[in-house]
Amino acid sequence: MDIVNQLQRQFIDHSTSLHREGIVDDQFTELQKLQDENSPDFVVEVVSLFFEDSEKLLNNMARALEQAQGVDFKQVDASVHQLKGSSSSIGAMRVKNACIAFRSFCEAQNREGCLRCLQKVTHEYSLLKNKLQSLFRLEQQILAAGGSIPVAK
Amino acid sequence: MTALVVDDNMVNRTIHHQLLDNLGIENVAVGNGKEAVDIHCSGKAFDLILMDMDMPIMNGIEATRKLREMGIRSMIAGVSTRSMEQEIREFIEAGLDDYQEKPLTVSKLISIIRKIN
């Protein structure tokens, strides 16, 4: 099996596992379908924006929850709402679901619950980031080897 | 056809811009309801406005109401993560022509555009 075929196979397997593990859902596939010759880097660009935005939001949540007294739960909830929205838009299913649970604890003004949720959201986000960066690295390797990226179904 | 994307989330603005671009629809994006009102006050007009609900400074409900008061007759489609009827009723009553739950997809956008045509 030549190197291009091997890399393409790895790409397909990695893509399949992202969906099978629920890390991304069909919305991610919709995003991939928006990429074309006029915007060949669309997915990487929008996901990079998502990473940048998410890290700011996670920092905001952490800072707000650091206050042992007088946590501004509305502020925390606003950040979680933003992250839920953008994770839903890129198809980051597990991050989105973690945000849904997080919002309930914000509404209940439960600091301990929020801290546990923050840990969970951060974990899911880190997992998503690692897996997507691996996917993009495989894409680059396929292109560098002269191959084409298998099309998302 | 021209469109205005109104959303405080940069990721969503980027995706909605690309969705519209791919359908050949010239579009501009702003970050909140006040910017949507201001761009109309500057004389610009759009066939379609994709309006998010929860935004700082001026939310989608206020912006929709204000645009209708200004006599703007463009198709305004609410696009939000809200799904409960009571949550979106006020948004619809502010003057929406359509409402789609996020995430926005090609097929949802096409169904909005069909209503214009």
Automatic annotation (TrEMBL), chain A:
The keyword Ribosomal protein does not apply. It comes from the Eukaryota. One of its GO terms (molecular function) is protein histidine kinase binding. It is found in: Cytoplasm, Cytosol; Nucleus. Pfam families: Hpt. Keywords: Acetylation, Cytokinin signaling pathway, Cytoplasm, Nucleus, Phosphoprotein, Two-component regulatory system. Signal peptide: none annotated. GO terms for cellular component: cytosol; nucleus. GO terms for biological process: cytokinin-activated signaling pathway; phosphorelay signal transduction system. The modification Phosphohistidine is found at residue 81. InterPro entries: AHP1-5/YPD1, HPT_dom_sf, Sig_transdc_His_kin_Hpt_dom. Histidine-containing phosphotransfer domain (HPt) contains an active histidine that mediates the phosphotransfer. Functions as a two-component phosphorelay mediators between cytokinin sensor histidine kinases and response regulators (B-type ARRs). Plays an important role in propagating cytokinin signal transduction. PANTHER family: HISTIDINE-CONTAINING PHOSPHOTRANSFER PROTEIN 5, PHOSPHORELAY INTERMEDIATE PROTEIN YPD1. This is Histidine-containing phosphotransfer protein. It comes from Hibiscus syriacus.
